[in-house]
Amino acid sequence: MKFLEADLEYHKTLLRTAKQSFSTHYDERTKKMGVVEHIRERSKKNRQGPPPPSNTKQKTSKRNKDIYKKIAILAHPDKLLHLSEEDRAKKEKQFMAASQAVSNNMMLTLHQIAKDIGVDMPAPTVEDIHMFEEELNGLRHQISDLENNWVWHYASADTDERREEIMKRYIYFILTTLAK
Questions:
Q1: Whose C-alpha in 15, 42, 74, 136 is 20 to 30 A from the C-alpha of 5?
Q2: Which domain covers residue 64, as residue numbers?
Q3: Looking at the 3D structure of the chain, how many domains does it have?
């Protein structure tokens, strides 16, 4: 899990960095092609509002709540006053991560935080293992999604010619999408 989380963070960081050069190249290329205004006009016509809010929030399992309570006993900010500033900051960060994990019903993350803090955990059940696998597959899916976007392909291209080809295809995609 830690490897996949680090890999996901790497992908996000690379994309954040690459977006600027991608956007600059896009702006230069569309100006050179003379399609800037065409794209802006079409975009205004095709623009839709944000998608409706999703009501698919998962209910937190009793087991996750129990794990969270054990973590809170050891890492809640109110319980850390006797610790050094550095230890307090570390535990508060773990507590915040646990709060987010319990609200998202991320059992594997809770188990990892509990282990790191020193919570005595029972052996995982078969159901727990299935939930762990779902979380890991979710991380893999997020990484795959990031690798399958235009900016990723642009950033990982090994030559300027390849980046130029990707940009041309992207602009063509935008233009044909807006034409629909």
A1: 74
A2: 58-123
A3: 1
